[in-house]
Amino acid sequence: MSSRAYTHAKGRVIAGNTLAYVVLAVLCVIWLVPVAWLIIISFSKGVAGIPNYFWPKYGFTLQNYVKLFKDSGAASGFYFPRWFLNTLFVAICSCALTAVMTLSVAYAVSRMRFRLRKPYLNVALVLGMFPGFMSMIAVYYILKAVGLTNTLVALILVYSGGAGLGFYVAKGFFDAIPKEMDEAAMIDGATRSQIFWQITVPLSKPVIVYTILTSFLAPWADFIFVNMIMGPTAYKNYTVALGLFRMIDREHITTYFSMFCAGAVLVSIPIVALFISMQRFYVEGITGGSVKG
Amino acid sequence: MEENRIRLRWSGLRRFFAAFVNQANLLGHTFREGDGRTRLSFVLMGFGNLVRGQVAKGLYYFLSEAVFVVYMVLFGARSLVGIVTLGTKTQYIEAIPGQVPKVIRGDNSMLMLLYGVATVLLVVWFIATYFWNISSAMQTQRAVENGEVLPGLRTEAREYLDAKFHVTLMILPVMGLLLFTVLPLLFMILIAFTNYDSSHQPPGSLFHWTGLYTFKALFSNSGVLGGTFWPVLGWTITWAVIATASNYVLGMLLAILINRKGVRFKGLWRTVFVMSIAIPQFVSLLLMRNMLDDFGPINGVLQHWGLTSKFIPFLTNATFARISVLVVNLWVGIPYSMLITSGILLSIPKELYEAAAIDGASPFRMWTKIILPYVVFVTGPYLITQFIGNINNFNVIYLLTGGGPSGLTYYQAGKTDLLVTWLYKLTVNTRDYSYASAIGICVFIISAILSLVAYRNTKSYKKEETFQ
Fold it and tell me: Could you tell me what percentage of chain A is helix, strand and coil, using 3-state DSSP and rounding each to the nearest 5?
């Protein structure tokens, strides 16, 4: 290759890279604008209703955060600290239950062969194709029949009740672990249970983290089932999602929009931090099962 | 995952009936071969196990029978009748002159149906237990005849950590599924065949079986329900196609851009986009709704800069709203597909690129001939899941527009409503459960057909071996 052609090619690479950086930078700005606005408004003074500006007109303040905690109580009907603890409690309980059950089912259908395995897989597939909200009202009446409506326990049950259907990612992961390891252990006299706990589980860190992460995050984001289970008066048992959702309905948005932003920031920080630190596992968890390349 | 999706269809049903016939045969066989004690197990469950020393097992079967019989006599039989009639006595107010009017409670069709379905599930469980009881009685008889030592409780229990470990693993999740998914779903599916709508609300009034009436109303060309269903269905499909395709292609392009040789700070770029996945959707989407408001910051800034003289109705005009939800959905969805395709792009064998580069392929040709086919192959199942996910994409629509702007000729729906958000509104706002349920069944059928068709046409199904 002549040196001119080389310089030419190099020039093209640099131009290409510059273009790539420009495009990426523009995209990043687009993706960050809503986040930035959320943070800015949460520190803004004198927000009434939906602000029609990006940059605060009346300066900055910490009041929105302070009020979130100080004004919590019967007068406002908003109990942010309480909601936060509720959600944390529900998330921890339901993620523990969900993770154990999901991994159990995934292991059973991946590694063991039993008569009802195929029927189970088919039924799970069919059940998964119905829209989730369809059975919502029936779930409500079942919970009502056992007197659990308006409680956090009901939420935990609802969030972890469907764990038996969410096994696909974990199953894909288990499928990829060589069977020979199990067989070798079996020859040494290990039982299925020992193989599960001592061989499969230690090898499955990414998918375990993925399962825990997704089930931990679910209660923070759901407002549909909470809304149904808690009814309109059980304010104290709301989760943050429903509470914040209520803060900006038509009645409240004029007063509470900046407090909503403050609350949203507080909720998002731990979740985003958790998510980004476990990002690697998240990707491995999803792709580990499907990517065979 | 794929294999299971395809084998679904008739083979499952056929095998189910074959298994049923087998069980019936087994029953006759056992009765002929069995001795007195085994035969007594046909009536007194667990007898065969009990008298031969397997006390715990025998007691389990026996108690199952006792509980079942007591339940059926006290409650179950009535529930099974109730599921047929759905109630006969309507609640009414008795007004005797001179006294305070009194509400005379009638039947509650909803509870009757719910308990009926629960009883049916219980009956199924009992029949299964019954068969296990028979075969267990026969097994113990055989074992005793052959002079084997019967496994004691401890040995049997240990089995549940080894050969029968799957039972231990699955019992809790399956029970959860039965209670919170199967039972509610069966109940709701049955609701579609009744007239449980806003004007038939128990306990005030009863509802009845109406066969396919709700579906006929939904599919009719005339009438307000049909007049809503078809347009909403049309938009749902349009939305799902555009949303899936745009997210997928643009997400892949973004992944290629980030993974481009020579682009630095890959982790940083990726993190910025991943952040939008991590932020709960109700936060980001509610925020977007307010940003796109007629009097929100985007319109404010556009007018401030003098770009528009009047606000742009991003979410309040039907066409604008449809475009807005699609664009906002890009913000939500591109990072996902970027993450997924990133992993796959890195796994493309380097030799493929090198060979193509030596042959003088342009970047565009490399993209169409190597990257795209490879990624489509590997992500085939993911793409279909995404499509079905978009048909069911509740959050983006509900949080952004709430389905609005409302369609004046529609029943309880708006111009951006998907079938699922319409279903939700019918459930929560007007309690038209039978319509909601029929719509849910339609969504199910669409998802089922699409995934079946799509799977058969993806390369991952046709040539599963090629890329492995």
Answer: 75, 0, 25
Domains of chain B plus CATH, in order, are 34-211 (no CATH), 218-462 (1.10.3720.10)
pLDDT band at B465 (very low <50, low <70, confident <90, very high): very low
Name the band, by pLDDT with cuts 50, 70 and 90, for residue B267.
Answer: confident
B 319-338 → A contacts, CB under 8 A = 331, 335
Task: Give the class (CATH, top level) of A71-290.
Answer: mainly alpha
Residues of B in contact with A191 (CB under 8 A): 158, 161-162, 165
Q: Chain A within 8 Å of B170 (Cβ-Cβ)?
A: yes
What letter does residue B296 receive in the DSSP assignment? S
ipTM over 0.90: no
Token code pair at residue A181: 């390891």
Best CA proximity match to A121, nearest among B166, B163, B463, B128 = B166
Query: How close does chain A come to B65, measured CA to CA in Å?
Result: 23
Closest residue on chain A to B350 (Cα): A293
Contacting residues for A206 by C-beta, under 8 A, at least 6 apart: A173, A280, A281, A284, A285, A288
User: In chain A, which among 93-122 make CB contacts under 8 A with chain B?
Assistant: 101-102, 104-105, 107-108, 112, 114, 117-122
Both tokens of A11, joined, read 């020039």
Contact B379, B255 (CB under 8 A): no
CB B177 within 8 A of CB A164: yes
- For residues B111 and B115, give the distance between their C-alpha atoms in angstroms, rounded to a whole number: 6
Neighbours of A1 (CB within 10 A): 7
Please spell the DSSP secondary structure of A138-157, one letter per residue.
HHHHHHHHTT-TTSHHHHHH
pLDDT 10s digits, A228-284: 888 777 888 899 999 998 888 888 888 888 889 999 999 999 888 888 888 777 766
Q: What is the DSSP string of B209-233?
A: B-TTHHHHHHH-SSSHHHHHHHHHH
Residue B372 pLDDT exceeds 60: yes
Residue with tokens 């779930």: A139
Mutate to test the interface with B, among A38, A133, A223 (most CBs of B within 10 A): A133
Mutation site, B258, B282, B419, B461, interface A, largest A CB count within 10 A: B282
